[in-house]
């Protein structure tokens, strides 16, 4: 594993970039937010995640590009919830909601390299990063201790989140990488040289999701709590479907959100099934272009599918990140699940260890 000094944050903290490499992949992780900065498919020499050139880009951006998100990812309705009969409240940052835990998210924390955690073998590299969020910092009950085990195994990036709270609390951690299998260099540039209609956007991606059910929204993108079948709706991706075609065909139904930003229930997950062992992991879905396929797997009960609807940013190498420049599959508990009695899978018991896993697997032999 290689390390690079990436300057300092606005608070004077050292920014470090960690590089892991196998025969198939090269991945760089930033210690701020345990953020995936680069995800390079080596045989294609193609970087397939959105990102910035410097630590300052990550501090200025507001799209959580590649970051580890928590303590509670997604939205908490009305920026308040009750845990163990005590009500907690925060300053809203997404309409009336709290999004991604506000100003003290794991996305903004400096993570430390766990001593002696690095390992390197043939076609395998590993590191472990850890951080702590204190109750006084983010307003959630109890201190949160979390570590992220990063493993690069052949053509797979494996992320394992292990966490514990000092009080009964609520935790919903996920990864927030925006993928574009065309390679981000195919996106338009600020100087306009490459800017043509739909240049490099994810509208040319085909996607397939392992979900028979999704969660309809009420107001302010908060799920109603209903588990609805995807059949005969704009949310049915059980069979491979072109993203651009789906966005166009269902423009009216999706207009309020500018695209997809919805929670899906995995085929063997959610409140319809018995609790699964930590060892269980299943396919969330996959997306592909003509020469590359990426599969996302997890042990979470569901995932958020997001098509980068609100992207407006300048990324690495002056690339223009606009609507539909990247898409996300974010394995997680349901948005606002702490406030929905039928769910509440994000609740934690004091001093108990919890674990969540995400795997990104590249199919280098894929040829549509």
UniProtKB/TrEMBL annotation:
Transmembrane segments: none annotated. Its EC number is 5.1.3.3. It catalyses: alpha-D-glucose = beta-D-glucose. GO terms for molecular function: aldose 1-epimerase activity; carbohydrate binding. SUPFAM superfamilies: Galactose mutarotase-like. GO terms for biological process: galactose catabolic process via UDP-galactose, Leloir pathway; glucose metabolic process. Signal peptide: none annotated. It holds the Pfam family Aldose_epim. InterPro entries: Aldose_1-epimerase, Aldose_1/G6P_1-epimerase, Gal_mutarotase_sf_dom, Galactose_mutarotase-like, GH-type_carb-bd. Pathway: Carbohydrate metabolism; hexose metabolism. It comes from the Bacteria. Keywords: Carbohydrate metabolism, Isomerase. Beta-D-galactose binds at residues 74-75, 176-178, 261. The active site is at residues 176, 330. Belongs to the aldose epimerase family. This is Aldose 1-epimerase. The gene is mro.
């Amino acid at each position: 594993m290689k390390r690079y000094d990436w300057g300092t944050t606005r608070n004077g903290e050292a920014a470090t970039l960690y590089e892991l490499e196998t025969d198939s992949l090269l991945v760089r992780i930033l210690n701020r937010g345990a953020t995936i900065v680069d995800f390079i498919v080596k045989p294609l020499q193609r970087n397939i995640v959105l990102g910035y050139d410097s630590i300052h880009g990550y501090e200025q951006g507001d799209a959580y590009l590649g970051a580890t998100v928590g303590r509670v990812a997604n939205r908490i309705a009305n920026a308040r919830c009750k845990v163990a009969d005590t009500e907690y409240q925060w300053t809203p940052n997404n309409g009336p909601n709290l999004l991604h835990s506000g100003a003290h998210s794991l996305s903004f924390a400096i993570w430390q390299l766990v001593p002696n955690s690095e390992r390197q073998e043939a076609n395998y590299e590993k590191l472990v990063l850890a951080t702590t969020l204190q109750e006084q910092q983010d307003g959630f009950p109890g201190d949160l201790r979390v570590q992220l085990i990063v493993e690069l195994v052949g053509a797979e990036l494996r992320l394992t989140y292990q966490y514990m709270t000092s009080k009964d609390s609520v935790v919903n951690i996920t990864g927030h990488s925006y993928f574009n299998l065309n390679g981000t260099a195919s996106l338009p540039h600020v100087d306009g040289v490459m800017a043509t209609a739909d240049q490099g956007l994810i509208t040319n991606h085909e996607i397939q999701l392992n979900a028979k059910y999704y969660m309809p929204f009420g107001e302010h993108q908060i799920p109603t709590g209903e588990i609805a079948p995807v059949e005969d709706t704009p949310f049915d991706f059980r069979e491979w479907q072109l993203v651009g075609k789906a966005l166009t065909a269902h423009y009216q139904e999706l207009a309020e959100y500018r695209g997809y930003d919805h929670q899906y229930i995995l085929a063997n997950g959610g409140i319809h099934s018995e609790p699964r062992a930590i060892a269980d992991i299943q396919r969330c879905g996959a997306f592909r272009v003509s020469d590359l396929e990426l599969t996302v797997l997890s042990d979470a009960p569901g995932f958020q599918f997001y098509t980068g609807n609100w992207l407006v940013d300048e990324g690495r190498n002056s690339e223009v990140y606009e609507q539909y420049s990247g898409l996300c599959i974010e394995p997680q508990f349901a948005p606002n699940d702490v406030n929905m009695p039928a769910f509440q899978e994000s609740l934690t018991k004091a001093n108990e260890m919890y674990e969540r896993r995400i795997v990104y697997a590249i199919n280098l032999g894929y040829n549509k």
